[in-house]
Specification:
2 helices; two-stranded antiparallel sheet; mainly beta; 13-stranded antiparallel sheet
Length: 285
């Protein structure tokens, strides 16, 4: 692998990990709480199934392939009219993410990172990503196939060629990973095309109760415009989170819009380290 290519891959890995993997949420206050307005319909897709018991966990499959939330879970957000949603009310990730029903989603994202720059000048990047989920067989057993494709490039201080990464992951209804494969192409050259060893000790669902802790604060209605459209009645949620893999504490903000089963915008900001990551919906279906 050429040194320049290695740098591109390393930065791309940091950005993708921060944006697309789960963070450990902490109980911390959020102060931004503009007044809410009525009239918005629920943005969470739910199913009329048996409610999850008081202590939900791994004993209630199947898990939704997009969020890891048990399909039987009914979000309390879907039961609350907007007139009863008071800014400052806290919700869990399970309530916010729900159990969306879709086949694919795509996003544009941009990033700015000062802490990885040897000169102090921010390293900026951009990418387009698409995630598809289908039900297939893996070695004769029912499985979920998740394909994530991203095209990543550094835009400053030194522009880079495009890096295309294709990740294929197979897992079961309990979110346990069965198989992973990755292919990476930089500047038209394939330098990685291999199976990735599965860490079976770390692929089981999150049974710690993290999903159910009320760590996201509803801050009110906040109009937002992204490539997929303009949403004047978007609901805004915010939380302070920690990603222990990068020793990074940041503020994460999510926007959900009426009739859209996934977040339409996501922003992660770490003021101490000077990093900003923005994810905007371009399409879903």
């Amino acid at each position: 692998m050429k040194p320049a290519q290695f740098g591109i891959v390393a930065i791309a890995g940091i950005v993708v990990t921060i944006l697309f993997t789960g963070c450990v949420a902490e109980e911390a206050p959020v102060t931004d709480a503009p007044a809410a307005t009525p009239g918005i319909t629920s943005a969470i897709t739910t199913r009329a199934m048996t409610p999850v018991p008081t202590t939900p966990g791994c004993a209630y499959p199947p898990l939704n392939p997009w969020t890891g939330v048990p399909e039987s879970y009914i979000s309390t957000l879907s039961e609350k009219p907007d007139t009863l949603l008071t800014p400052g009310t806290r919700f869990s990730r399970a309530d916010i993410l729900g159990t969306p029903a879709l086949n694919w989603k795509s996003y544009d994202y941009t990033s700015e990172m000062k802490d990885i720059s040897p000169t102090g000048e921010p390293v900026t990047s951009e990418s387009e990503s698409r995630t598809e989920i289908t039900k297939e067989d893996y070695k004769g057993k029912p499985a979920i196939h998740k394909r994530s494709t991203s095209v990543f490039r550094i835009t400053a201080p030194s522009p880079s060629p495009d890096q295309t990464t294709i990740d294929d992951t197979y897992y079961d209804e309990m979110d346990t990973v069965l198989h992973q494969h990755r292919k990476v192409i930089v500047n038209g050259e394939t330098y990685e095309d291999r199976d990735i060893p599965v860490d079976t000790a770390g692929t089981s669902p999150d049974c710690s109760g993290d999903l159910w802790e009320p760590t996201y604060t509803y801050t009110g209605i906040d109009p937002v415009t992204v490539p997929a459209g303009t949403y004047p009645d978007a609901r805004k949620f915010r939380a302070n989170v920690t990603d222990h893999s990068f020793s990074r504490t940041a503020t994460i903000t999510l926007w959900f819009a009426p009739g859209i089963p996934v977040e339409v915008k996501k922003v992660i900001e770490d003021k101490e380290k000077g990093s900003l990551f923005t994810l905007e919906l371009t399409g879903w279906g």
